[in-house]
Specification:
The complex is a heterotrimer of chains A (317), B (313) and C (259). Chain A is of the alpha/beta class and 317 residues long. Chain A is built from ten helices and 14 strands. Chain A starts with 6 loop residues before the first strand and ends with a helix. Classes of the chains: A alpha/beta (317), B mainly alpha (313), C mainly alpha (259).
């Protein structure tokens, strides 16, 4: 997890607009000018709701679509330099492969395309397959594999040529909890080998456990970027208060706490700054305090706060 | 982006180059294909079968056959062919697929009937084709005209020719000269003036380049025929006066029988060979009956005998 | 470069061969040839002619149908199924290499397919005429021309596949094939016009793929020799025209945003 100062991805004002409408006369901005850099060796999470522009960014970086403006460099080289792709692995969102091939054939094909040394090709293929735990299904045609297994094959193809930078688009989507756990472990493992990982997701808990840094994107615009802990500190914390005695409910509700009563036991969640007032109210009502615990802020809170700001701004506008 | 524009320019350049090369090659291929002898033996199925196979697109197919007719004739005519073996079946196919295609009947009436190398030399088939056209298009008065032409000029049957013009003149909308032709044929079938009148009308009433060229050719030959007749008269006059044949045109000019050396429509002087008028290059006038050199007349006679054989069938 | 193109070609070939459509069509073609044998048995005098016409037409027809139906999906299916992402996005594969590889892969498939059909066809001819003679070399020429047809039609389908949906691509490809079959007549039509329309029509007629000269089935059935010059010119033409189609495909594909 050593972060050096050399950026793996440098993005400067990269943007993309599409022509839409029946006559191509409407301009839709898929990505507003984006400036971002990903350091070598880090796990970088690229977050945002569906349609935020995450996939567009990846496609721009990989030369599948051409930018309307701005530049980007990958591993210090220009986007148009095709040789840099030897060092990049990419897992598309919900990957599809050639139905009639087996994982072994598929990985062999990709290894050839990536220019893996012919003498090492077989070993690379076998290793990649083993890393995703698919050795047993190596000779089954892809159309007979489950979605989760395809996702593993997808990851295998992204690492078969031992890349320095791995781009994953929604790697956890469509996986069961065990599968997600395995992908998480694999990402950590790859990162420990020194690979830079850039992955997009709309599942925030995954990003929270894995990422060194994250960027939050909404409607094609960057909303925030930074180390996870720093970002969380920006969201004001809340506390959970538990006590016995239903009488105090009305007083705390008046303060703005969300209360849930189970028999005589009441749970309330309220902003940290109201804690003193809440405790005073409990004392006045002779309630018996059970416990007070700070609620851990999550990336979700940060995310909702950021996306929510925009929503309320829209309402007032 | 420079890389992008580089790709664009090189693609555009390469594409232009390749397409130019391909056009040249198509041109070469067409030439090789036109020379192929296999056109003569090309397998021609029956018109009924083709019509059924055309799945209702018989009009388009007829147009395709029609172009083939024109191209086939054009290529063979250029090569001065002695035989036009598949002209008749091609025309039959075309008119079966599209019985209303009048240009095909007109084309056939001229080029099926005329002697080689100016046509297939089969006036009977030509007459049959035009009769078929009349059956399918009874209101097309031009077809009666074409039929009359075949009877008169190629089958040497002025009576049947006049009958055809007469029938045609009753069709509503028929041109008045149909009646004139019918009368003219009754009275002056053998006269060059009648023929000139007829070919002038053909020339003025068609846009078909082949038919027009043919009519002009015909008129040119008719002019030679009438000029040779006049010149021969003058020579005979000279011979009667002097009791000997003239040695050249100068003698006729000094005798006051001619103003200057006579020139044929292709700008060559007529030739005076032992008291006979001849054209300098008979191959330029394929339809002339007068002014042919002694040896060449045989071909003409043979051609006429060819008719007779056909006629008795 | 070469390794990448061959890898793509090989993969295209493998994918096509494992698609069962191909097997069915080969089987069907062999069936046609088999039934043509039956026709030969019935009509005594023209048995070889019927067999040659039917057999060669079947070889031509099946190959063209396969070429169009697989060809139209070569690029658009990869975009639609997003398999293209894993090839072009993170591999040092240039887009023109992808186009070329795809094209070669399908041509290779068709070649193998045609070889199988031809083997059956020659066996049938040998059976009907009790052995093969020198005259049957003309049949090889006809089959060679059919292969050239495949190459042209594959490149055509590929071109349409780079910018259109499979449905429209197949319509375009079939229409162009039909027009190309009448290319000579089209040039004849153009000659009959005059003025500007004549030049425009002639230009258009010359730019259409010239399939007409590639069909010598009926000539060969009647034992007419094909001129060596025509073989040479046709070969050159198909090479040049195919290169033009591939260039156009690359041109379009290089500029395309792969959404």
């Amino acid at each position: 997890m050593l972060a050096t100062l050399m950026p793996a991805i440098e993005i400067h004002g990269l943007e993309k607009s599409y022509k839409t409408g029946f006559f191509g006369n409407k301009l839709k901005q898929g990505l507003k000018p984006l400036t971002l850099s990903v350091e070598e060796g880090e796990v970088f999470g690229y977050l945002g709701p569906n349609g935020a522009g995450k996939t567009t960014t990846l496609k721009l970086l990989l030369g599948l679509v051409f930018p309307s403006g701005g530049t980007a460099r990958i591993l210090g080289r220009d986007l148009n330099d095709i040789e840099v792709k030897r060092f990049i692995g990419f897992l598309p969102e919900q990957p599809y492969f050639y139905d009639h091939l087996t994982p072994l054939e598929l990985l062999d094909y990709y290894a050839r395309l990536s220019g893996v040394d012919p003498r090492e090709r077989k070993r690379s293929v076998d290793t990649a397959l083993a890393r995703v735990g698919m050795t047993a299904s190596g000779k089954t045609q892809l159309r007979k594999l489950s979605k989760g297994m395809l996702q593993r094959v997808g990851i295998a193809q992204a690492i078969v040529h031992n890349p320095k930078l791995v781009l994953l688009d929604e790697p956890m989507s469509g996986l069961d909890p065990i599968g997600r756990r395995e992908v998480r472990d694999l990402v950590q493992e790859l990162n420990e080998e020194g690979k830079t990982i850039f992955f997009s997701t709309h599942i925030l808990s995954d990003a929270e456990t894995l990422c060194d840094r994250v960027a939050v994107l909404n409607k094609g615009e960057l909303k925030g970027v930074g180390v996870v802990a720093d970002l969380l500190r920006q969201v004001s914390g809340e506390v959970e208060v538990v006590w016995q005695g239903a009488k105090a409910i009305s007083a705390l509700s008046a303060l703005g706490a969300r209360c849930h009563a189970t028999g005589d036991t009441v749970r309330a969640v309220l902003p940290e700054r109201l804690l003193e007032a809440a405790l005073d109210a409990l004392r006045v009502n002779h309630a018996r305090l059970t416990r007070v615990t700070p609620v851990q802020a999550t990336l979700e809170d940060y995310f909702l706060a950021r996306v929510g700001e925009e929503k309320s701004a829209e309402v007032t506008a | 982006m420079t890389r992008d524009s580089q790709i664009q320019t090189s693609c555009a350049l390469l594409l232009t180059l390749l397409l130019a090369a391909s056009i040249t090659l198509v041109y070469q291929i067409d030439r090789v294909r036109a020379d192929e002898p296999l056109q003569e033996v090309l397998y021609l199925p029956s018109p009924t079968v083709v019509k059924r196979l055309s799945l209702g697109y018989s009009g388009l197919l007829a147009d395709i056959y029609w172009t083939r007719v024109v191209q086939y004739f054009g290529a063979k005519h250029k090569a001065k062919a002695k035989q036009y073996l598949i002209l008749e079946p091609l025309l039959d196919m075309t008119t079966s697929l599209d019985p209303k295609l009048l240009p095909a009947y007109q084309f056939g009436s001229v080029f099926l009937a005329q002697k080689p190398p100016e046509g297939a030399g089969n006036p009977v088939a030509a007459a049959q084709l035009v009769e078929k056209g009349i059956r399918e298009n009874p209101t097309a008065w031009r077809l009666y005209y074409d039929l009359g032409y075949i009877y008169w000029l190629e089958l040497k049957n002025p009576r049947k020719a006049a009958e055809a013009f007469e029938r045609g003149s009753h069709v509503p909308g028929a041109h008045p000269w149909m009646k004139v032709m019918a009368a003219a044929l009754e009275a002056h079938a053998g006269e060059t003036e009648t023929a000139i009148y007829m070919w002038t009308n053909i020339l003025n009433s068609t846009d078909d380049a082949n038919l027009r060229a043919n009519a002009i050719n015909r008129l040119r030959c008719l002019r030679v025929d009438s000029e040779v007749k006049i010149l021969q008269d003058r020579i005979d006059q000279f011979t009667k006066q002097r009791g000997r044949l003239p040695s050249g045109w100068e003698e006729l000019i000094s005798a006051g029988l001619l103003h200057r050396t006579p020139i044929d429509p292709k700008d060559n002087p007529y030739q005076l060979v032992s008291g006979r008028v001849q054209v300098a290059q008979p191959e330029l006038f394929p339809f002339i009956r007068q002014g042919l050199p002694p040896g060449k007349e045989a071909g003409d006679i043979l051609g006429q005998e060819g008719f007779k054989v056909v006629k008795t069938q | 470069m070469i390794e990448r193109i061959t890898a793509i070609a090989r993969n295209t070939f493998r994918e096509a061969v494992r698609d069962r459509v191909l097997y069915n069509l080969i089987l069907f073609a062999l069936l046609i040839v088999g039934s043509s044998l039956l026709v030969g048995q019935i009509s005594v005098a023209v048995d070889r002619i019927v067999l040659v016409n039917l057999g060669l037409t079947a070889i031509s027809f099946f190959g063209i149908v396969i070429a169009i139906f697989i060809g139209i999906g070569l690029v658009s299916k990869e975009i639609e199924k997003r398999t293209l992402y894993t090839v072009l996005a993170a591999r040092p594969v240039r887009r023109w290499e992808f186009i070329t590889g795809k094209f070669l892969g399908l041509v290779m498939t068709l070649l193998v397919n045609a070889l199988a059909m031809s083997a059956g066809f020659f066996a049938a001819v040998a059976f009907v005429s009790h052995g093969l003679g020198h005259g049957d070399l003309q049949l090889v020429t006809a089959i060679y021309f059919i292969l050239l047809q495949y190459v042209l039609i594959t490149a055509l389908a590929l071109l349409f596949s780079t910018f259109s949906s499979p449905l429209f691509s197949s319509i375009f490809a079939f229409a162009t094939f039909a027009i190309g079959t009448f290319a000579e007549d089209l040039r004849g039509f153009a000659q009959m016009a005059s003025g500007l329309p004549r030049w425009l029509m002639t230009g258009a007629a010359y730019l259409m793929p010239n399939f007409a000269a590639l069909n010598v089935i009926s000539e060969v059935a009647h034992n007419t020799a094909v001129q060596p010059r025509l073989i040479l010119l046709n070969t050159l033409y198909v090479l040049v025209y195919t290169a033009a189609l591939l260039t156009a495909s690359v041109w379009i594909f290089e500029r395309r945003n792969l959404k």
